[in-house]
Amino acid sequence: MDTTLIEKAAMDGEMPRLMTIPEKQLYRQLRALYTEYRAGKYTREQARQEKGVIYADFESTNKLFSVMEEYQLNIRKAGTLRSEIDKAVTVEDKLRFCLECIEAMTGETGFSRRNLNAIYDQADTADKP
């Protein structure tokens, strides 16, 4: 959700639906800031500075949340690939699924393709006299 919509909602006091955890945290912090500002606990400059801190915290939390989501997806993908490894009949398929599983677990994009290419290149070189 766009942060400007979250900020407007915090000013109005109406929490939007379907927000991520970091977005809900942003809303609550901005809502508290606006409430305290209106109560005279902050000057305009203090509130502006505090808002900057809140947005910086949101950016950090949002990045961490995204990484955690990707990590969870990779765990699920690795589980699926483990099952594919067990079902694979040929050594080549087992190797491919193993490399894809390692790629999912480490999050290293291109690991599988790079290693398969290296293996095929080695095999091609070994076949030549």
Outline the fold blueprint.
Elements: H1 3-12, H2 21-38, H3 44-87, H4 91-106, H5 111-127
Explain what you see.
The longest helix has 44 residues, at 44-87. The protein has helices at residues 3-12, 21-38, 44-87, 91-106, 111-127. It is an all-alpha fold and 129 residues long. Helix 1 packs across helix 2 (21-38), helix 2 (21-38) packs antiparallel against helix 3 and helix 4 (91-106) packs antiparallel against helix 5. It is elongated, with a radius of gyration of 25 Å. The protein folds into two domains: 1-69, no CATH class; 88-129. It contains five helices and no strands.
Offer a concise description of the structure.
It is built from five helices and no strands.
Helix count? Answer: 5
Average pLDDT score: 93
* Gap between N and C termini: 61 Å
- Radius of gyration, taken over Cα atoms and rounded to an integer in Å: 25 Å
Q: Quote the beta fraction.
A: under 5%
Count up the domains: 2
* Unreliable runs: none
Q: Globular, elongated, flat, extended or rod-shaped: what is the shape?
A: elongated
Order of helices and strands: HHHHH
Structural class: mainly alpha
Summarize the amount of helix as a percent range.
over 70%
The biggest sheet, with number of strands, parallel, antiparallel or mixed sense and barrel status, is: none
Q: How many β-strands, per DSSP?
A: 0
